[in-house]
Design a protein that fits this description.
Length: 229
């Protein structure tokens, strides 16, 4: 069998399995799919627990900090979904920058709230805040991973880490409206730990899925098709 015949057979085989696919929407619009869950979670938290007792003292700054943090979370989710298209989206370096920005947003927002309304209870119980933040942020991470699985992320562990960080940052923003403890000794342990756990969980889940699906074409340390790390 000569080369031309082999090529024609390959083309014919490919044409038999070709199916039309629906183009992916822009990542920023797909990231907004997390908005209904965040709105429903906020409503449920407010009905169940009510606003934190010092909300009146903090004023609009409490809501502004939460809104900015939710926006950061959605931007991180959009950046994760950018990677579902080959040769686009965050590189390894920019992925590290984005996760750092997400963690910094969570810490800065907590410190801003602490300034006008210092509540110095010391190290409050960690587990209640940890569990509730994970409960709010985990579905956002799962949504991101599911949306990623519909594309072709070349480095799914980076995309998964960004999706996990997005869930952690957004979940922390909502739960901070409820949590009555503003002390840094509390939020740096309970709240920041929840964000870090979701980021790590997203990276592991994305990496495992990439290996099983054969999608991790450019693992840590390698270059993408554009020659960038």
């Amino acid at each position: 069998m000569d080369r031309d015949t082999s090529t024609e057979l390959l083309r014919a085989r490919i044409q038999r399995v070709l199916r039309p696919v629906k183009p992916l929407r822009r990542s920023r619009w797909r990231a907004l799919a997390a908005a209904p869950w965040l709105v429903a979670s906020l409503a449920l938290l407010l009905v169940t627990y009510g606003l934190r007792p010092d909300a009146g003292q903090i004023g609009l700054l409490l809501w502004a900090a939460a809104a900015v943090q939710v926006i950061v979370g959605l931007v991180l989710l959009s950046a994760a979904l950018d990677r579902s298209v080959p040769a686009s989206g965050a590189t390894r370096f920019s992925g590290a920058i984005l996760t750092t920005v997400g963690l910094a947003a969570q810490i800065v927002a907590s410190l801003v709230i602490f300034v006008p309304a210092p509540v110095r209870e010391g190290l409050a119980p960690v587990l209640p805040c940890l569990v509730r933040e994970l409960a709010v942020g985990f579905p956002v991470m799962l949504l991101g991973l599911w949306l990623l699985s519909r594309g072709l992320p070349l480095s799914p562990w980076i995309a998964g880490a960004l999706a996990g960080m997005a869930g952690g940052v957004a979940g922390d923003a909502l739960w901070r409206l409820i949590c009555p403890v503003a002390s840094p000794s509390h939020f740096l342990v309970a709240h920041t730990l929840a964000v870090a756990m979701l980021c790590l969980a997203g990276a592991v889940a994305g990496g495992v899925w990439g290996v099983l699906a054969g999608r991790d074409m450019f693992p840590a340390g390698s270059m993408n098709p554009n020659g960038r790390r």
